[in-house]
């Protein structure tokens, strides 16, 4: 059963300007493993984290550092959750989090489906 969905879109040019203007955003928003990626990939990951928060219903107690987007099997994106982010997912009975991301034509977009297989 689907327990939540979330979607987010990021303007790539605006995102790039923001991280250039405020460099401390990158270490605040992204894990060590994400930080070396190009701006369009960071924008897609930002959208993914926002979409996850929307799928959960709120971000209470969840840190950006606790939500990491990694390449899973077959190079498909997936979340690696830690700390309060993992607890928030478990507390809501979520067993699977599905993620799709894209970037093209000046935007990055992410879509998240939170599912309970029980």
UniProtKB/TrEMBL annotation:
EC class name: transferase
Main location group: cytoplasm
Annotated localization: Cytoplasm
Family matches, as InterPro entries: 4-PPantetheinyl_Trfase_dom, 4-PPantetheinyl_Trfase_dom_sf, ACPS, Ppantetheine-prot_Trfase_dom
Biological processes per GO annotation: fatty acid biosynthetic process
Reactions catalysed, as given in the entry: apo-[ACP] + CoA = holo-[ACP] + adenosine 3',5'-bisphosphate + H(+)
Gene Ontology CC terms, in alphabetical order: cytoplasm
Claim: Ribosomal protein is one of the keywords in the record: no
Sorted UniProt keywords: Cytoplasm, Fatty acid biosynthesis, Fatty acid metabolism, Lipid biosynthesis, Lipid metabolism, Magnesium, Metal-binding, Transferase
Occurrences of domain 4'-phosphopantetheinyl transferase (ranges): 4-90
Protein task: Transfers the 4'-phosphopantetheine moiety from coenzyme A to a Ser of acyl-carrier-protein.
The protein, known as: Holo-[acyl-carrier-protein] synthase
């Amino acid at each position: 059963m689907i327990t939540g969905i979330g979607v987010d879109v990021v303007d790539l040019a605006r995102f790039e300007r923001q991280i250039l203007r405020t460099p401390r955003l990158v270490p605040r928003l992204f894990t060590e493993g994400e930080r070396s990626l190009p701006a369009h990939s960071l924008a897609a990951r930002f959208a993914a984290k926002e979409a996850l928060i929307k799928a959960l219903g709120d971000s209470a107690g969840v840190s950006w550092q606790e939500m990491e987007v990694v390449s899973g099997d077959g190079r498909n994106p997936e979340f690696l959750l830690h700390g309060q982010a993992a607890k928030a997912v478990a507390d809501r009975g979520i067993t699977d989090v599905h993620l799709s991301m894209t970037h093209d034509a000046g935007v990055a977009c992410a879509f998240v489906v939170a599912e309970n297989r029980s």
